[in-house]
Amino acid sequence: MVPARRLLRGLLYGSRYDRVPWGQRVYVRPGERLLREAQWRWRIRRAPVLSLAEYAAELPLGEIEEFLSCMMCGESRQQPMFEPTGAGKGGTGRTWRYHVVRCPSCGFLYRNPNIRPERLGDLYSSGYSGFLTGTYAANRQRRYNLTMEAFSPVLDDGEGRRLLDFGCGVGLFLELAEQRGFDGYGVDLSPDSVTQANARLKRARAYFGAPQDVPQIAAGGFDVITLWSVLAHLPRPLEDFARFRELLAPGGVLLILTVNARSLLLKAYGSAWSGFTKNHLMFYSAETLRTLLRRTGFEGVAYAPHYGDTVEAGTTRLPEPLRRRLRQAVEASDGGNMMRALAFGDEAAVARWGDRLTIHRLRDRTAAPDERADLDLTGSSGTGALT
Ligand SMILES: [Zn+2]
């Protein structure tokens, strides 16, 4: 940190917040939320708005990459915002770097250039399961349970219900799902992860590939589909979500956990934000997720603010007044670091859970039938890819 800023911080806060972990400081220091939000608005005003041609002319294009327009609204203009970088895994010393733009029309954040969908497997072909064990596994399973509790009672009892975990990895969630009685299925693009998952599971089964490649899954009829930290990895979200909608049984729900593009930590740390990981492609807010769900035929969505796993599990060392301040900052800014959402496929799903959860309607039910057709763009031609 530059000395002037350190001095300013010292004058403002003294050493009072030195023991608060980095991931919580921006939420608990007085005035910081408003400051970061102002900083964010300034950053957006300052970023140039370029045509896609102007933008693409400035950047090299890798073999497995392509330039995109905004997939949520079709806008082709680009606001260059961030350039995350990182070190390669396993001490290879190879670093990665990519560019993140903001759509000047709808605010969607996405990597541009992005990864060609047919080359997506390249990112997961080998060694991807390696780090999915140990403390990581325990923390993940705690996170799954906390998220399911946040939408209780929808996922409490799996008896007689079919569940698909899309991007199931080594089966850590499917293991919990079978314990809750679900009839569990998983798919993943990493072959060694699928092997490990099937070794772990008793009744549930994991498969390699896309849902349409596996007959047991292509048959559909799922009461629950889960996307645990998967949404940000999808290069063709409209196609995928239209398929999820088809795979849902009447009354079915889709559970999503992903990094939050409105995170106060993104506003504070920019390119160094933890949500910009090597294989992330697109970054959603509650608003842009609503667009995705509406365009792919979903009926409603509920959100549960994310306060951080240690706060929710009661293991944080933050004193109670600071915990309260953190919760207030998350709620006032919709700024939790992760976003949790439960999408409802049809009227039956909304009707079943609507008295227990606050469900935002995705379609204007008072519109005339032909106007409703305009709102539902399922199967429209534009994927946003610049071919
Ligand atoms: Zn857009």
From TrEMBL:
It comes from the Bacteria. Keywords: Methyltransferase, Transferase. The keyword Transferase applies. InterPro entries: SAM-dependent_MTases_sf. One of its GO terms (biological process) is methylation. It is an enzyme of class 2 (transferase). The keyword Manganese does not apply. Its EC number is 2.1.1.-. One of its GO terms (molecular function) is methyltransferase activity. This is Class I SAM-dependent methyltransferase. It comes from Nonomuraea indica.
